[in-house]
Design goal:
The protein is an alpha/beta fold. It folds into 2 domains: 6-188 and 226-259, 3-Layer(aba) Sandwich (Rossmann fold), CATH 3.40.50; 189-225. 50% of the residues lie in helices and 13% in strands. The protein has a 7-stranded parallel β-sheet, sandwiched between helices. Strand 5, helix 5 (153-172) and strand 6 (178-185) form a beta-alpha-beta unit. The protein starts with 5 loop residues before the first strand and ends in a 7-residue tail after the last strand. Bound molecules: nicotinamide-adenine-dinucleotide.
Length: 260
């Protein structure tokens, strides 16, 4: 379906981003990978995508907290592949503390990486999409784009911002063949969440499994994690022709988290 198209997935060296890059590659898209990690491991991922799915894959080390590097990455994607057709804004970080104890540098980093990076990438990518009259922009928000949790002031503010940004871009590009949607996952078991489980287990003396169940049941009626592959499958659907009129939406995939 996406054969001949190119997808850029930010933060795709791990977790949801990697699963989404794999799902888009399986559907035929060429892939620009991005994110931090061990050089050799990333090269293994890149070469593995090419081999497994018969597509072309490149890697950009752009730091999503740096506007200039984001613009360069978008330009490099268009130059390498001829177009950027599917943009998945996924890179994200987390930090938890009450607002009065929240370090200012953590606030700045989370707003830069989890929110402003999407402004910069969309700003750079959308002119080409509009010109070609086809584009899919998918912003990985969160249940925290729709509701709050204590101790996550920067994350919740950034994710609510992403949902707003999604709507504006959708409205602006509505008649240019470009859609823009947000995906709002609940708990997905990735390294980002594993760190939170480990911290809980350490603080409470629970076993990792007990901490896992406690974490899930606090928020989700469904006591199981969403798989990163499920987010990838939703991104593929939103990139399909069947989803051509879905725009400006915030898709929950959260085990019932925000239904309560
Ligand atoms: P992860 O930690 O497994 O992956 C994060 C990715 O972002 C990595 O590839 C990392 O290298 C990259 N990254 C971090 N900072 C970067 C920077 N400055 N520049 C470039 N890349 C950077 O996390 P994940 O759980 O897969 O999360 C991915 C996205 O999904 C995030 O936006 C997160 O907020 C969102 N999300 C996750 C969950 C969950 O339960 N895991 C739930 C809802 C939303």
């Amino acid at each position: 379906m996406l054969k001949g198209k190119t997808a850029l997935v930010t933060g795709s060296t791990s977790g949801i981003g990697l699963a989404t890059a794999r799902a888009l590659a399986a559907d035929g898209a060429n892939i620009m990978l991005n994110g931090f990690g061990d050089k050799a491991e990333i090269e293994k991922l890149r070469a593995g995508l090419e081999k497994e799915f018969g597509i072309k894959a490149k890697y950009s080390p752009a730091d999503m907290s740096k506007p200039g590097e984001i613009a360069d990455m978008v330009a490099a994607t268009e130059k390498e592949f001829g177009s950027l057709d599917v943009l998945v804004n996924n890179a994200g970080i987390q930090f938890v503390a009450n607002i009065e104890d929240f370090p200012v540098d953590k606030w700045d980093a989370i707003i830069a990486i989890n929110l402003s990076s999407s402004f910069h990438s969309i700003r750079a990518a959308i002119p080409g999409m509009k010109k070609r009259k086809w584009g899919r922009i998918i912003n990985i928000a969160s249940a925290h784009g729709l509701v709050a949790s204590a101790q996550k002031v920067a994350y919740v503010a950034a994710k609510h911002g992403i949902v707003g940004l999604t709507k504006v871009v959708a409205v602006e590009a509505a008649n240019d063949g470009v859609t823009c949607n947000a995906i709002c996952p609940g708990w997905v078991l990735t390294p980002l969440v594993q760190k939170q489980i480990d911290a809980r287990a350490q603080a409470s003396g629970q076993s990792p499994r007990e901490a896992e169940i406690a974490l899930l049941s606090e928020k989700q009626p469904m006591h199981q994690f969403t798989k990163p592959e499920n987010i990838g499958a939703l991104a593929v659907f939103l990139s399909s022709d069947a989803a051509a009129s879905i725009t400006g939406s915030a898709y929950s995939i959260d085990g019932g988290w925000v239904a309560q």
